[in-house]
Structure formats: structure tokens, C-alpha cells
Amino acid sequence: LTIIAERSKNGEPLILPLSTQTTELLKRQYELTGGLEYVWGEKYYGDPRKTLGAFRERLGWNLSFHDLRRSFSVVATRLDINQAKIARLLNHKATGVTHGYQILSDPELLRDATQRISEAMDSIEEA
After folding, report:
1. How high is the pLDDT of residue 125?
2. Cβ(48)–Cβ(68) below 8 Å
């Protein structure tokens, strides 16, 4: 997944590996839309906050992007995933001396962590 700089949290482009669960969801969505250009349908939705607003309405309770990011981080921390990897997956800028030594620009270095987090979230959903 590539998030362009104009859309990313910190203004820098981000390339992330997708978990097998996310890949399967995207494949199913592609089949549902008949291979339309955009993932969710015929048109470009623009600002993702509008999509989140529609999701909140259907869900029936307030939810923010920050809530989703925090939940992701909590699951990753409970799995004892390296904090530098969590920061990279959240697209936080590297700060401090130690982060300078941990070069995580290769998305493949994040694939295992991404998959483990997805599997843990699946198990939460089933619980």
C-alpha cells in the first residue's frame, strides 16, 4: 500500500506491506465492484473523514481515526513488536538517537509485524 505524501499523517510518503487479510478484503471488494477503478465504487471519495463520518453513522457511536491508530498501537505493543516498527507503521517521524539507527524504509521489514497484528485483531473479533 502506498500512501502519498499529501495524504499521510506526517506529510511524507509511506509504503506498507498488506496482511493476507487485507489483501483478501481488497480482492473481494474488487469482485463486488466488478473491477471498478476505485476500491469502494464508481467515484473517488476524496476526504477520508467523510467515509469515517458515514461509518460512524452506521455504527451508531463516535469513532475517530486516532481511536483506530491507538487500538492498532495497543495490539502491536501487546504482541511485543519493536517500537520502531510500530512508529513506522503509524507513520510517525523517527526521533531520538536510537531511531536513527533503525532504518525501516524497506516495507518488507514490516511484513511480519503487519501480519501478526492482523492475526491478533482477527482473534479479538472472534472472541
Report:
1. 60
2. no
